[in-house]
Structures are given as structure tokens and as C-alpha cells.
Design a protein that fits this description.
Elements lengths: L4 H14 L3 E2 L23 H4 L9 E9 L16 E9 L5 H15 L7 E6 L3 H11 L6 E4 L1 H4 E3 L4 E12 L17 E14 L5 E14 H9 L11 H11 L8 H22 L8 H19 L7 H12 L5 H4 L1 H32 L3 E2 L1 H11 L3 H10 L3 E2 L1 H14 L11 H9 L5 H4 L12
Parallel strand pairs: 1-2, 4-5, 10-11
Antiparallel strand pairs: 2-3, 3-9, 4-7, 6-7, 7-8, 8-9
The structure holds alanine (ALA).
Length: 464
């Protein structure tokens, strides 16, 4: 049944309020815990409670928590469901109810409140968790073919290398049941979307990797608001839900294009703008300002990506405050601090955008010089310097080169890019809550000179 994003949020909170949960407001994206960079999950504000360091005021709570994750930033706009900013709906038990009740309510809200047909649902459990398997099969009545046992990478949730963790059970929605019960592969994201994660939070992992039982057995869950909206609004991806699409529409109007008639590349750019501007609006609303370190660096990088993707779709002037306005209109009813911080948000955007556009202009000058010397082709190395130092996407260099009767050595560019990639480390599998961990993950995607940036002329150059 069609539901707006706001209705989904409200239905979730109301359901758990009726089951004795206290509705708490979303915490800030900037965690109280100084060792953590950003709020990456609904459980984060409750971490001290899970660890037994703080007494809970209520045994059960429910929230819609704004979150930011930058570990998957490369996938934003390219897959149907990756975001930097998203809202996580959660129900939490602090040593109160546990596995059986969490599963029963998880199923009830999915099938009765959101009215998802049970035959469209598949669940996963941690491979060693026979108890969860039995609850799904015997108490809920899910057929064993639709209960998948998965390993630690998928079904043992942790917020970082250390801290509270536990086995989990996830509920997936099947967009293509006609493909058959025998072919269930939950990794296939053209068919399945995982929308609800139930974590049986019962261990603490120490720095040596040892698991010790927590004082209490707790429940931590996360339902992706944007994902549930995609399912209920029957749109092809999270970006086309009412939570994000109006922002995309604003950007498309400024670029004088039509999203639905655009090619895939243009759609990716519009989605990146839609995603990142939400993140930027909420980060600045929560007090973060652009800089070259820590959270401020994330804001700066997100703004630059918005500007760069704006240029890719043909926007030449300043536009970020206009798309931010739409993002603010979408969220101000639930997050009033967004409007209260309007002048900070718009001022920051304007400053950063102007500076970055200046950098891009310097790049254009350099490109003109390069083109003057080039004999038919711009070298891959030159194209890479433009990309890496001046934030020039390859497409932009190519376009300008073409206008001047030149080509670009794409292979050479890719080699230079590959070399840089090799210099950074292997991708991390897990989300790391620590400040250093988050920065390390971010650093994987950027050139080391970025951090030397502020001592150089090109201080505000480079964007991915
Ligand atoms: N903390 C769990 C998650 O983020 C619910 O998926």
C-alpha cells in the first residue's frame, strides 16, 4: 500500500509506541562520544547503555535516527539503495525483550502495518543461530527455503572493530518472486532488498577480538526508511521516493533537463546531488562547517561533489542553495533545526561553492595551456592532474578537448588513476565508528596531497 516517507516514519514509531516503547527524537549527527566521527546507526546514541556504562531511562525505545555513512560514497547514485545520508527507524530493548519478541514484532510490522505480502519476504539468520532459525520456521511459519543461513560478514553486526555486537537476522523484500524459490540468492540486488535488520546485541568485542557477553541481552534494529519507501512507493530506486525526488527535480529544472528522459550518467549525477545535499544540510544544521579535517572535511567533500555533478549536467552558475532549499522543505517538519539554521546552511554552501568554482576556473586556465602544447592528444597524466588537483572530471576535460579538436588519452588517465588506487589500501568491509577508522576509510578514496592541501596554493582543489 502506497505510503509517503512521513507516513512510514510515523507508522513505525506508533507501532512500537503501542508496544511500550518510548519515542525519542533523533540524536545529532555529531555524536556525544568524542571518539566517534558521525552517527552511522540508530544504536549509536545507546552504545553506552548496551555497554552497561549508562542506565537506560526506559527499557524500550524507538527512534527515527538520521545517519551518515561515507564508506560507500562511490556507490551513491550508482546502485538503487546506497546513500551517505539516510534515516534509520529502530526499536531498542535494553535488557528487556529479546530475540523471540523482536522477530515476532519485526514480522508483524512488516506484514500487518506495511502490508508486505509474506510470500514476498525472505529472511536471513546467522549461520550458527539455530534458535533464530527455529523461531522463524516454527513460530512465524516461514518456510525453511525462505530462511537463509549466512556467515559473519552478513549476519553478525558490529559497529566497529570493538564494542557491542551480536548475531543478526535480516528481512528482505523480493521484487521478482517469479524468478522462483529455488533460485534465492540474497546477494542479488536486482531481486532483493534488505530492509530490516534485527540485531541480537549480546557481546562486547575487545581490542584483541575476544567476545564477552554483555551484562544484558539487548535488541538493536534498523529499518531503512528510504528502502521501505522504495518498496511501498514501487519506484525503481530509493532516489525516486518522495523523500529525495523533489530535490532531484529542482536540480533537473535548474539544468533544464528532464530526469526521466535523461541517460544513466545524468541520472547518477542527479542522484548524487539529491543524496549529498541532504547530508550537507543536516551536517551543517548539526553544527559542522567545511574544513580540511574530520567532519568538516566530509562537508567540504560532499559540497564539491554536488558542484561538480552540477557542472556535469550542464549547470554553470551557483545552485547549491536552491537544491538545499528543497531539501530543507522536505525535512523541516521532522527536523526543525534545519530551518533554524537556514542562514548558516546557505551561507556555508555559498562560500564553499564560490571557492570551488574559482578552483575549477584555475583548472580551466591550466587546461587551456595544456591544450596549446598538446599535439592532437592530451596526455593521461595531464588529465589526471586536472582531475586530481583541480577537481576536473575526465568527462569535462574530454568535452573541452573535443571542442578544440583534441582527444584525451583515456588509457593513460586510467593507469594514473589505478596507480593512485593502488597507493591506498584495500577496501574495508566493515563500518568503523572510531574517528580514526572513519578518516582512514575516507582517505582510501583520496590522494594523499589532499591533506597537505592547506599548505599549497591548490588548497581547495580536488574532489572525487
Ligand atoms: N545497528 C544495525 C544496523 O545498523 C541495526 O544495521
Amino acid at each position: 500500500q502506497y505510503s509517503t516517507g512521513s507516513e512510514i516514519r510515523q507508522k513505525f514509531l506508533n507501532f512500537y509506541a503501542e508496544k511500550g516503547h518510548k519515542i525519542l527524537p533523533s540524536a545529532s549527527l555529531v555524536p556525544e562520544d568524542p571518539t566517534v566521527l558521525l552517527t552511522i546507526a540508530g544504536m549509536l546514541p545507546f552504545k553506552p547503555i548496551f555497554l552497561g556504562q549508562r542506565q537506560p531511562e526506559f527499557p524500550r525505545a524507538t527512534t527515527s535516527q538520521k545517519c551518515i555513512r561515507t564508506n560507500d560514497i562511490e556507490n551513491v547514485g550508482r546502485t538503487a539503495r546506497h546513500h551517505t545520508f539516510f534515516e534509520m527507524l529502530g526499536n531498542f530493548s535494553f535488557g528487556d525483550y529479546f530475540k523471540q519478541q523482536a522477530i515476532a514484532w519485526g514480522w508483524e510490522i512488516s506484514t500487518k502495518v506495511f502490508e508486505l505480502p509474506p510470500e514476498r519476504l525472505v529472511v536471513s539468520v546467522f549461520e550458527e543461530d539455530d534458535e533464530a532459525f527455529a523461531i522463524w520456521r516454527d513460530e512465524i511459519g516461514v518456510s525453511p527455503q525462505r530462511i537463509k543461513r549466512m556467515g559473519e560478514a552478513d549476519n553478525f553486526w558490529k559497529s566497529g572493530p570493538t564494542g557491542p555486537c551480536g548475531p543478526c537476522s535480516e528481512i528482505y523484500y523480493d521484487f521478482h518472486p517469479e524468478r522462483g524459490e529455488e533460485n534465492i540468492d540474497l546477494e542479488d540486488d536486482t531481486r532483493f532488498i534488505e530492509f530490516y535488520n534485527l540485531v541480537f546485541m549480546q557481546y562486547n568485542r575487545d581490542a584483541d577480538g575476544n567476545l564477552t557477553p554483555l551484562q544484558n541481552k539487548n535488541i538493536d534494529t534498523g529499518m531503512g526508511l528510504e528502502r521501505m519507501a522504495q518498496i511501498l512507493q514501487q519506484v525503481p530506486n530509493n532516489y525516486e521516493t518522495d523523500l529525495i525526488f523533489p530535490i532531484i527535480k529542482t536540480a533537473a529544472e535548474i539544468a533544464q533537463i528532464d530526469y526521466h528522459k535523461s541517460d544513466d550518467k545524468t541520472k547518477v549525477s542527479l542522484k548524487v546531488i539529491g543524496d549529498h545535499i541532504r547530508a550537507v544540510v543536516h551536517l551543517i544544521a548539526d553544527g559542522v562547517t567545511a574544513s580540511n579535517i574530520g567532519r568538516g572535511y566530509i562537508v567540504r567533500r560532499l559540497i564539491r561533489r554536488v558542484v561538480r555533478h552540477g557542472r556535469l549536467i550542464g549547470i554553470s552558475g551557483e545552485f547549491t542553495t536552491l537544491v538545499a532549499e528543497t531539501a530543507m522543505q522536505l525535512s523541516e517538519a521532522v527536523y526543525p533545526n534545519v530551518r533554524q539554521r537556514e542562514s548558516a546552511i546557505k551561507g556555508e554552501l555559498q562560500r564553499e561553492e564560490t571557492r570551488f568554482l574559482e578552483t575549477l576556473e584555475r583548472g580551466e586556465k591550466l587546461l587551456a595551456e595544456i591544450m596549446e602544447k598538446a599535439k592532437g592528444q592530451i596526455s593521461g597524466q595531464d588529465a589526471f592532474v586536472l582531475y586530481d588537483t583541480y577537481g576536473f572530471p575526465l568527462e569535462l576535460t574530454q568535452e573541452i578537448a573535443e571542442e578544440n579538436g583534441l582527444t584525451v588519452d583515456i588509457k593513460g588517465f586510467e593507469t594514473a588513476m589505478e596507480e593512485q588506487r593502488r597507493r591506498s589500501q584495500d577496501a574495508h568491509e566493515t563500518i568503523d565508528l572510531t574517528v580514526q577508522g572513519s578518516l582512514d576509510q575516507l582517505a582510501e578514496h583520496i590522494h594523499p596531497t589532499e591533506f597537505l592541501g592547506y599548505t599549497l596554493l591548490t588548497s581547495d582543489a580536488k574532489v572525487e
